[in-house]
Amino acid sequence: QVQLVESGGGVVQPGTSLRLSCGASGFTFSDYGMHWVRQAPGKGLEWLAIIFYDGNSKYYAESVKGRFTISRDNSKDTLYLQINSLRAEDTAIYFCAREKRGELLGLDYWGQGTLVTVSS
Amino acid sequence: EIVLTQSPGTLSLSPGERVTLSCRASESVSNSYIAWFQQKPGQAPMLLIYGASTRATGVPPRFSGGGYGTDFTLTISRLEPADSAVYYCQYFGGLPPFAFGPGTKVEIK
Predict the structure, then answer these.
(1) How many whole angstroms separate alpha carbon A58 and alpha carbon B95?
(2) A-contacting residues in B 45-84 (Cβ below 8 Å)
(3) Which of B5, B23, B29 is nearest to B95 (CA)?
(4) What is the chain B residue with the closest CA to A42?
(5) Which residues of chain A have pLDDT under 50?
(6) Tens digits of per-residue pLDDT, A17-28?
(7) Which of residues 41-60 of A touch B (CB under 8 A)?
(8) E strand or H helix at B99
């Protein structure tokens, strides 16, 4: 069955960096674009970034452009999110989600998320 | 950049009632680019509707989506206690960035 499992979250200090991972299984990873979405405590969903199926195109929300980097390794069925210069407002659950390439079927599977807490 | 607004912010309804949630885009978008999600506390969002009106796999027919241009809706025809959740619309698939609306919280009395 389709599974997306995020990891790499934790309690980190402001100004440091973190790399989140999203391991995929149960489907052909290279057939899907992948998204990162976050949710601050008690708040709504915030779309962060997308990487196309082949890794050649990436787009970011304006709020994270320059500090966040999305990447993928199709040989390892893994998606990544590098977050630099962490701030208190980056405290959130970070979800990865998949989107079938070229078919506009929506973000149909999501991981359960990994919690990032930025605190000194 | 597309911005989505949702109304109302919160609803409190009884089981069996019909409810329509609204999602408005800051400019006209193709129906293909609108999705709806349900999120329950402590869970990841779940895709309900894509292409503005197509139900995702396994979604009951009492959930329906509609609209065009800048105004889109999600209707739940007969509310059940399990429908208590926050519902988000999303613009996706067109020109990034892909935004979510702020959500509508549906409470079942």
Answers:
(1) 12
(2) 45-47, 49-51, 56-57
(3) B29
(4) B41
(5) none
(6) 999 999 999 999
(7) 44-47, 50, 59-60
(8) none
